[in-house]
Amino acid sequence: MSIQKKDIRALSKAQLRDFFVQKGDKAFRGNQVYEWLWSKSAHNFDDMTNISKQTREVLEANFVINHIEVDTMQRSADGTVKNAVKLHDGLIVESVLIPTENRTTACVSSQVGCSLDCKFCATSRLKRMRNLTPGEIYDQVVAIDRESKLYFNRPLSNIVFMGMGEPLMNYKNVMKSINMITSEEGLGMSPKRITLSTSGVPKMIKKMADDQVKFNLAVSLHSAIDHVRTAIMPFNKMFPLEALKEALEYWYAKTKRKITYEYVVWGGINDKQKDIEALVKFCKYVPCKVNIIEYNPIDDGEFQQAENAALEAYIETLEKHRIVVNVRRSRGKDIDAACGQLANKK
Ligand code: SAH
To answer: Which residues contact 271 (CB under 8 A, 6 or more apart)?
Structure first.
């Protein structure tokens, strides 16, 4: 019978130090290995060149490093890069590198598939298989940082948790990955450059506020009218707008950080004046801004991008109420890398 070896990146630094002490080695060895695992992102014990061969064999006998492998990489005409990433158990997720004039943004996945059932999102058609580990999320960031240096001669500057999955349904691992991304013992990135996007799990939004997180929060709103939102995001039935509002008020009271609402406008769904008015009302609850995202078609047309006139009406009304609104053009559409298109098609 083979014993399943433990993923060494599940251990804290203190646990690694203890491991070495128990093996009769120095606790300091734990620090060295920890540095290899995170800041140097080693994927093999043999890469750990300042660790003796004997010690590497001990590690090999006790642990594995469950790391990702970039399986296929596609490049869009607009420079966007999509990675299909293979996990140690053969499952695949996708992550995206989005270059703009002076930034590189990594869009990372937090789960394999998704348990939400947003009608307009391609990922919702993939069954949620499992949560990603902190190491698997971290590795996606490292891979994109390398690609950014290779293709654009600059390191990664921003991270958005807007790939596959609902990050707040994998809370512990997502937080641990962000801790390592921001820690000086990991990538040392500023939390101000990280945005977590959620469909809005009220309890977990409050938990983040209690945990005093320092990154940005985005909420995929899409409608501020309950029955409309429930029709396109059935999850809203369980967590209606009133509960979301209350959680966001709590978030703002505790963190004093503005919220971004992501919003797609579809013809015949949320393109009327009453939809706009409901959004304006919702925007008054806590300081926020609105990102209107272009719809990326995922199928034969149940959903369609609204007419320009409807978009203009949104922008005009929001601005009249002094609500900041941006229109986000989609990127990487030709390789199915845009918002809501991640579906492991390749
Ligand atoms: N589950 C989280 C993280 C995914 S983020 C969340 O819902 O926020 C992906 C973003 O793309 C969300 O704002 C989602 O609503 C949006 N999206 C999904 N499908 C889309 C599509 N076909 N076109 C444009 N945006 C889409």
So the answer is: 265, 306, 307, 310
- Asked whether 94 lines ligand 1 (CB < 6 A), one says no
Measuring CA to CA, which residue among 167, 177, 110 is closest to residue 142?
177
Longest distance between any two alpha carbons in the chain, whole Å: 72
Residue 288 above 80 pLDDT?
yes
Integer Cα distance of 14 and 34 in angstroms: 10
Whether 142 is in the pocket of ligand 1, judged by its Cβ within 6 Å, is no
Query: Which tokens sit at 190?
Result: 């500023």
With a 6 Å cutoff on the Cβ, whether 197 touches ligand 1 is yes
Among the listed residues 35, 94, 184, 307, the single catalytic one is 94
The backbone torsions φ and ψ at residue 151, rounded to the nearest 5 degrees and listed phi first, read -90, -25
For residues 261 and 197, what is the distance between their CA atoms, to the nearest angstrom?
9
**In this predicted model, what pLDDT tens digit does every residue of 110-158 receive, in sequence order?**
999 999 999 999 999 999 999 999 999 999 999 999 999 999 999 999 9
Contacts 24+ apart (CB under 8 A), 150-153: 151/79, 151/81, 151/97, 151/99, 152/79, 152/99, 152/104
Q: Any residues with CB less than 8 A from the CB of 27 and at least 6 apart, and which?
A: 17, 18, 20, 21
Q: 256: Cβ–Cβ under 8 A, 6 or more apart, which residues?
A: none
Tokens of 237: 């039935």
Which structural domains are found in the chain, ordered by start?
Answer: 6-64 (1.10.150.530), 69-335 (3.20.20.70)
Dihedrals φ, ψ of 48, to 5°? -85, 80
pTM of the model: 0.96
Nearest ligand 1 atom to the CA of 160 is 5
Closest among 164, 161, 239, 165 to 200, alpha carbons compared? 239
